[in-house]
Design brief:
Length: about 180
């Protein structure tokens, strides 16, 4: 059985691109919040999530993922509240940033990891636009305080890379990792 170690509806939807049948089991792993190397942070958190669920399901294949936003070396996770979301969006407004998703596949005793990086370019946003967007509640559970597939679409000038990575699960990269793990 394939198990996604995430309660994210976006990851669930994306994993359906690869599998019709899988189980969802949210991880209770305590994630790292800061690191000198953002790519390693995303991969380590993905491993923590996958390993915590794999303890309960040692004979299954467990997939973990962790998405972070990085701008000028600063890591943006999920905002603490609406004020935090507004501040993040002000920082990202009119600039390029990176979205990094670490992925981990646990099969028995083996762990396979990888990551993907996508550049996202935001257009300028006014304070009024930011406040209006944050008031929808959408940014409050998203790394970087926005959803590419949601209301933030109107602010995104362009992306370089895999759009599914920005949504939270790089489907192509995951497929390659699962092949390397002998799963598909």
């Amino acid at each position: 059985m394939i198990i996604l170690a995430s309660g994210s509806p976006r990851r669930k939807e994306l994993l359906h691109k690869l599998f019709d049948d899988f189980k969802i089991e949210s991880s209770d792993a305590e994630e790292f919040q800061d690191a000198a190397e953002p790519k390693k942070l995303a991969v380590e958190n993905a491993k923590l999530k996958a390993k915590s669920v794999a303890k309960k399901y040692p004979s299954d294949v467990v997939i973990g993922a962790d998405t972070i936003v990085v701008s000028n070396g600063k890591i943006f996770g999920k905002p603490a509240d609406g004020c935090g979301a507004c501040e993040m969006l002000r920082t990202l407004s009119g600039k390029k940033h990176e979205v990094i998703t670490g992925i981990a596949v646990v099969t028995g005793e083996k762990i396979f990891t990888d990551f993907d990086v996508t550049e996202v370019f935001f257009g300028e946003m006014t304070d009024e636009e930011i406040i209006e967007y944050v008031s929808t509640g959408e940014p409050l559970d998203k790394s970087g305080s926005y959803a590419l597939q949601g209301g933030a679409t109107k602010f995104i000038e362009k992306i370089n890379g895999d759009w599914s990575n920005v949504v939270g699960l790089p489907v192509y990269r995951l497929r390659k990792l699962l092949k390397a793990a002998g799963v598909c």
